[in-house]
């Protein structure tokens, strides 16, 4: 790891002020991706602005039709929250599938989303549920947030403060894991908002994306058969050691089928 | 009288320190004035080094010294030797190109060491290592062993990249037998390259003492005495007495820590140059790049049978990848430890095996758990299972038809099996596996859209590689005995020094059980010491499942000497004839009388010899033994694996795994079971998840746990184990060894099950979900 | 940049001046010389570095020491009773031969302790899932799973 300057702001306002002008600085959330990248010297920020003690950033609020997760809320806390389990059980389940127990105790919702790892789980839920990302500057719609491989709509110095997930009628997330890393080779989040279905896919592309064919078919008929009938095109999907684009395309349908099946239970 | 300890499930003596964080591994050792080394490694698979610039790095904070290959050459530090000379089909010695500790003008695989930076802290060493600038001129690289001989030479001394071509068996006779066969089964396959990945990364920490003009090297090694021998005699040109090698607690090895590595030499040599201790601990990324890998064979195998499925002959042609350099035992793995096992459990009368060993631009390949024997078992058991399917014979039936049933049995490939009972292990495994209920389970699986398959593997292994003179005639450059010392203290407690090394096997317990049982002492009265060349008289280390059969026997030999001397002392003390003294569980008795002396009393007399036959006998009670076995031992068994394959995703789950082994006599069943569990999991890993991959240019694609998948807890089932016992005939404990069996038998059992489930002849390992899914796609129409 | 870090480790307050880039595991191993916490990989998969931070299992190789500022850290050295008696989870590992080389063991035990707190009667499947973040190359997990099932039972849902 390269050397860096460490900062520990007390509020998100201070955090945003601290990062101003430091072009190579990074916010440090749970560190489960960033610290790893720094250890391997793949990332070398000049400054780390640690959000770990900013209390206002870690809260779970459930209102009638939305679950709002503070950016610094740990995955384990989302997975274990009875309020989330009740409002959007699929979201709690997804948080409980991220990484491993130890990672879930540190990793955060905001950190995961800001990192936009192509195989991370949260982005599938953000897109599948049509979440709204609140930042230090504005609100960003899910559909406009993930812009590419490790890239988002966030501007330099912009900090995610919370993510608001609309409560669907029913939803489920299914993940086919990379056997080595345990990240998603393909993860599919299916959410039914009463005739309007959203499908968020992670692991398969440069960043998470919505799958229009599945959405259309499932909006018409929310059944396993409707999902099974969709043949996803492999064009543009990720190709690596673990899965070819063809395999990933096939897995999107399989995981969608299984997600629908789970959502219907 | 105490209960027998041999055969008891004694809890381990070593566990308390490991469970409380008190274990001491090499990286835990920190010395006064400690410095840290970071190696600059080649990003190219094959390149000429044009220039190395270290000026900028030298100015980096905390840097003490930087050494490059030239510094070692100028100091006459030699290259790493190979411990086994293979003589090729033409009677010529194998090609042995130099294996420098730091690259000399050229790099031959990604990760090869080019320079070492020594600094005050680990971070500083790494910071500076990044600043060492190396100008390379890249050369074309070869990764595929089948393409090696037509590629650009990697070493001057091997222009066609061939290290040797070696064979065993009479080819003409075997070719003839194939012509007359009613059926021939032929398979072509790759035995996938594996990366050992002991969870403790390799590490070395060396200190030079100006007063003693000697070195102490702490190193994560399975083999401290051989490490010292190779380093002093062949590389540094020092007397052995000048280097003390300590392999403290070692966090797993599986073969990868048998060898002398360049890093060990460099830190040792450098500790004198800077007169401070130098520590290097591999990062996992470095382990992936630079630990010796395992397997990597390309094989064409054929089995000839008569019309009833009786085996007539076997022909096996293998290309073995040695990697860029010959690691310590690399050359004997695909020959002596592979071809000689091709008889398996069967009476195949004629066997021919030809092995071409080649250099490629990849990390060196050497012994990894099983070493040659998993590859041999895979050949034999995949062939046999496929033959049974082709000839529509029950797979267990074809095995039974060909089992060796009379012992000793001389195989056509040099080995002589002393004992075994293959029917017993097969029968027990079939019963445990409920083979007769398989069809119903298969139908149930299909209802869940899953394909179920069952596969057998009847493996044999040769352990405790021996005897030295035979090994020598086959090219071994070292002895293969083991040394032991039993030091009885004045109060009757005992310290046992063994040349075997434990890195998870629990020798401190198993060996203590043997000693306590034989001497009639409590476990707490016996302590086992290993891993330190300044304490242990000599040792050949632990590999090849040799510890109990060879190391254990050396201890038994020393114990026999202790008891013999004790009898003389006891005879004197009790004024009886030595021939009348009996020793039984801690007590020397005069036969037919109630006169007795305890072991402690005799020990005390030996060290406080006030009443002692000083005219006839030296005081003290401390005996050594060196034991060179008369033969290999031959553990064998049957594994039955059942798999369930998800037709949608191709994912394979091990539904059940039954292992019935014959390890001869067992000292501690609890420890033996643990060895089998671990071996099976590595074997399942080879079959399902593990496969080292380089791209065409020689870049390692599977360079982290994020891409190279060693099994996790959820990837394997709980295992069902049982044993049958035929005692080894040529060692006093009747033991055979158990460390590698699981890794030897499991891959074939799993792949036999998967090919059964899929209804295909063959599938490449590892059978990842994607591989299986692709196969399902290709064969979809045929199947439905 | 140097920073001052203070925390409680195994009940004792500790503090030090460190380079900001010092990982928590480096602080524990190199500065406090508590070498029971191990490092087995550089990509956060192996779990040998698992410790508890404020009662929860985390990977000490995946955070910088400053992230543990003010925290309560428990390492394997702090698990047994002061008189040396093994914690029931440690005892279960010993009894069921849940360790071989011992290198992954501290991480396994630390994770298991945290897992078992709320799970007095875990199934084998749950235990295997709970070990997603811990690699062992020796035991094939069979006896680790047995150990954790037994240890959890002995703990009865408490720590």
Account of the protein in words:
The complex is a heterotrimer of chains A (265), B (784) and C (159). Chain A starts with a strand and ends with a helix. Chain A has a 5-stranded antiparallel beta sheet with strand order 4-5-10-6-7. A 4-stranded antiparallel beta sheet of chain A has the order 11-12-13-14, sandwiched between helices. In chain A, a hairpin with a 2-residue loop joins strand 8 and strand 9 (151-152). Helices cover 35% and strands 24% of the residues of chain A. Chain A has 265 residues and is an alpha+beta fold. With 784 residues, chain B is an alpha+beta fold. Helix content of chain B is 28%, strand content 23%. In chain B, the strands form 7 sheets. Chain B has a 7-stranded mixed beta sheet. In chain B, strand 13 and strand 14 (311-323) form a beta hairpin. Chain B is globular. The mean pLDDT of chain B is 97. Chain C is of the alpha+beta class. Helix content of chain C is 31%, strand content 17%. Chain C has 5 helices and 5 strands. Chain C has a 5-stranded mixed beta sheet with strand order 2-1-5-3-4, sandwiched between helices. In chain C, helix 2 (88-95) packs antiparallel against helix 5 (142-155) and helix 3 packs across helix 5 (142-155). The radius of gyration of chain C is 15 Å and the shape is globular. Classes of the chains: A alpha+beta (265), B alpha+beta (784), C alpha+beta (159). Chains in contact: A-B, A-C, B-C. The interface between B and C is large, with 60 and 58 residues.
Over all CA atoms, what is the radius of gyration of chain B? 27 Å
Q: How many strand elements of chain C?
A: 5
User: Which spans of chain C of ≥5 residues are poorly predicted at pLDDT below 50?
Assistant: none
The coarse silhouette of chain B is: globular
Beta-strand content bin of chain C: 15-25%
- Proportion of residues in β-strands of chain B: 15-25%
Number of helices of chain C: 5
Integer-rounded radius of gyration of chain C? 15 Å
**Topology as H/E string of chain C?**
EEHEEEHHHH
Short description:
The complex is a heterotrimer of chains A (265), B (784) and C (159). Helices cover 28% and strands 23% of the residues of chain B. By secondary structure, chain B is α+β, with helices and mostly antiparallel strands.
């Amino acid at each position: 790891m390269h050397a860096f300057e460490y900062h520990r702001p007390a509020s998100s306002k201070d955090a945003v002020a601290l990062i101003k002008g430091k072009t190579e600085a990074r916010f440090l959330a749970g560190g489960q991706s960033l610290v790893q990248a720094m250890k391997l010297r793949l990332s070398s920020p000049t400054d780390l602005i640690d959000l770990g003690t900013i209390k206002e950033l870690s809260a779970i609020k459930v209102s009638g039709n939305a679950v709002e997760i503070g950016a610094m809320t740990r995955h384990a806390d989302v997975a274990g929250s009875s309020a989330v389990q009740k409002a959007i059980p699929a979201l709690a389940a997804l948080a409980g599938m991220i990484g491993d127990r130890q990672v879930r105790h540190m990793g955060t919702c905001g950190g995961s989303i800001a990192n936009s790892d192509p195989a991370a789980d949260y982005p599938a839920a953000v897109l599948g549920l049509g979440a709204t990302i609140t930042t230090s500057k504005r609100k960003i719609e899910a559909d406009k947030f993930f812009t590419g491989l490790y890239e988002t709509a966030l501007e330099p110095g912009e900090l995610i403060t919370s993510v608001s997930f609309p409560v669907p009628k029913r939803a489920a997330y299914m993940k086919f894991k990379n056997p080595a890393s345990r990240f998603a080779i393909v993860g599919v989040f299916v959410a039914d908002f009463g005739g309007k279905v959203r499908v968020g896919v992670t692991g398969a592309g440069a960043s998470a994306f919505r799958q229009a064919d599945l959405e259309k078919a499932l909006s018409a008929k929310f059944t396993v058969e409707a999902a099974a009938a969709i043949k996803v095109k492999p064009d543009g999907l990720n190709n690596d050691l673990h899965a070819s684009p063809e395999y990933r395309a096939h897995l999107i349908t399989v995981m969608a089928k299984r997600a629908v099946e789970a959502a219907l239970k | 009288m105490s209960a027998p300890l041999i055969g008891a499930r004694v809890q381990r003596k070593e566990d308390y320190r490991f469970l409380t964080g008190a274990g001491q591994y090499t990286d835990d050792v920190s010395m006064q004035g400690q410095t840290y080394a970071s190696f600059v490694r080649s990003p190219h698979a094959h390149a000429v080094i044009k220039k190395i610039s270290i000026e900028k790095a030298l100015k980096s904070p905390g840097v003490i010294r930087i050494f490059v290959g030239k510094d070692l050459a100028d100091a006459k530090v030699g290259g790493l030797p190979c411990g086994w000379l293979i003589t090729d089909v033409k009677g010529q010695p194998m090609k042995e190109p130099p294996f420098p500790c730091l690259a000399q003008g050229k790099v031959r695989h990604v990760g090869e060491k080019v320079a070492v930076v020594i600094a005050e802290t680990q971070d500083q060493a790494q910071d500076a290592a990044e600043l060492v600038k190396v100008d390379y001129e890249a050369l074309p690289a070869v990764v595929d062993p089948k393409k090696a001989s037509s590629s650009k030479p990697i070493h001057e001394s091997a222009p066609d990249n061939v290290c040797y071509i070696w064979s065993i068996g009479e080819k003409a006779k075997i070719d003839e037998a194939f012509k007359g066969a009613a059926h021939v089964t032929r398979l072509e396959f790759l035995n996938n390259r594996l990366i050992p990945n002991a969870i403790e990364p390799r590490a070395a920490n060396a200190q030079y003492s100006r007063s003693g003009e000697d070195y102490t090297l702490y190193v994560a090694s399975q083999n401290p005495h051989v490490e010292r021998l190779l380093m002093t005699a062949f590389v540094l040109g020092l007397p052995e007495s000048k280097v003390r090698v300590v392999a403290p607690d070692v966090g797993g090895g599986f073969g990868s820590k048998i060898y002398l590595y360049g890093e060990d030499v460099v830190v040792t040599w450098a500790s004198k140059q800077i007169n401070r201790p130098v520590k290097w601990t591999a990062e996992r990324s470095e382990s992936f790049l630079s630990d010796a890998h395992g397997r990597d064979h390309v094989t064409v195998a054929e089995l000839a049978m008569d019309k009833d499925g009786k085996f007539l002959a076997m022909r096996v042609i293998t290309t073995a990848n040695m990697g860029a350099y010959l690691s310590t035992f690399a050359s004997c793995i695909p020959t002596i430890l592979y071809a000689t096992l091709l008889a398996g459990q069967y009476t195949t009368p004629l066997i021919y095996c030809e092995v071409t060993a080649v250099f490629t631009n990849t990390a060196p390949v050497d012994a990894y758990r099983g070493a040659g024997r998993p590859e041999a078992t895979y050949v034999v058991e995949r062939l046999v299972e496929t033959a049974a399917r082709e000839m529509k014979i029950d797979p267990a039936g074809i095995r039974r038809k060909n089992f060796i049933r009379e012992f000793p049995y001389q195989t056509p490939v040099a080995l002589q099996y002393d004992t075994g009972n293959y029917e017993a292990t097969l029968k027990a495994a079939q019963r445990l596996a409920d083979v007769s209920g398989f069809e119903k389970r298969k139908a149930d699986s299909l209802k869940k859209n899953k394909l179920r398959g069952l596969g057998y593997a009847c493996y044999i292994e040769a352990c405790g590689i021996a005897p030295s003179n035979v090994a020598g005639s086959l090219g071994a450059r070292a002895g293969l005995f083991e040394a032991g010392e039993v030091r009885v203290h004045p109060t009757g407690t005992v310290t046992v020094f063994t040349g075997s090394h434990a890195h998870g096997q629990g020798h401190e317990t198993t060996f203590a059980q043997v000693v306590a049982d034989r001497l009639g002492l409590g476990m707490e009265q016996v302590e086992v010491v290993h891993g330190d060349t300044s304490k242990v008289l000599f040792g050949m280390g632990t590999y090849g499942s040799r510890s109990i059969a060879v190391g254990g026997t050396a201890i038994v030999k020393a114990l026999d000497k202790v008891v013999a001397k004790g009898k003389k002392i006891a005879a004197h003390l009790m004024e009886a004839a030595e021939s009348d003294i009996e020793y039984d569980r801690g007590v020397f008795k005069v036969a037919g009388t109630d006169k007795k002396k305890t072991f402690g009393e005799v020990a005390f007399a030996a060290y406080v010899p006030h009443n002692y036959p000083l005219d006839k006998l030296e005081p003290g009670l401390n005996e050594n033994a060196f034991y060179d076995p008369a033969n290999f031992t031959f553990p064998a068994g049957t594994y039955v694996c059942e798999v369930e394959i998800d037709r949608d995703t191709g994912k394979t789950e091990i539904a059940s795994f039954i292992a019935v082994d014959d390890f001869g006599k067992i000292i501690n069943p609890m420890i033996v079971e643990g060895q089998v569990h671990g071996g099976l999991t590595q074997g399942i890993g080879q079959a399902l998840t593990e496969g080292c991959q380089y791209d065409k240019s020689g870049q390692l694609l599977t360079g982290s746990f994020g891409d190279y998948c060693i099994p996790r807890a959820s990837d394997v089932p709980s295992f069902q184990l049982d044993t049958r016992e035929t005692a080894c005939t040529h060692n006093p404990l009747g033991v055979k060894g158990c460390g590698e069996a699981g890794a030897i038998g499991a891959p074939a059992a799993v792949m036999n099950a998967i090919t059964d489930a899929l209804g295909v002849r063959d599938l490449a390992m590892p059978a990842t979900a994607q591989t299986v899914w692709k196969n399902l796609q290709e064969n979809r129409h045929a199947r439905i | 940049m140097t920073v001052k870090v203070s925390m409680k480790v195994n009940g004792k307050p500790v503090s030090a001046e460190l380079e900001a880039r010092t990982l928590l595991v480096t602080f524990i191993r190199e500065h406090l010389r508590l070498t029971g916490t191990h490092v087995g990989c550089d990509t956060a998969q192996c779990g040998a570095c698992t410790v508890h931070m404020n009662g929860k299992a985390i990977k000490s190789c995946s955070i910088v020491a400053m992230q543990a500022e003010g925290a309560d850290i428990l390492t394997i050295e702090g698990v047994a009773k002061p008189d040396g008696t093994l914690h029931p989870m440690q005892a279960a590992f010993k009894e069921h031969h849940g360790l071989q080389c011992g290198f992954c063991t501290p991480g396994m035990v630390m994770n298991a302790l945290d897992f078992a707190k709320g799970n007095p009667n875990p199934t084998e499947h749950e235990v295997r899932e709970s070990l997603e973040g811990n690699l062992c190359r020796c035991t094939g997990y069979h006896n680790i799973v047995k150990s954790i099932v037994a240890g959890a039972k002995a703990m009865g849902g408490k720590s």
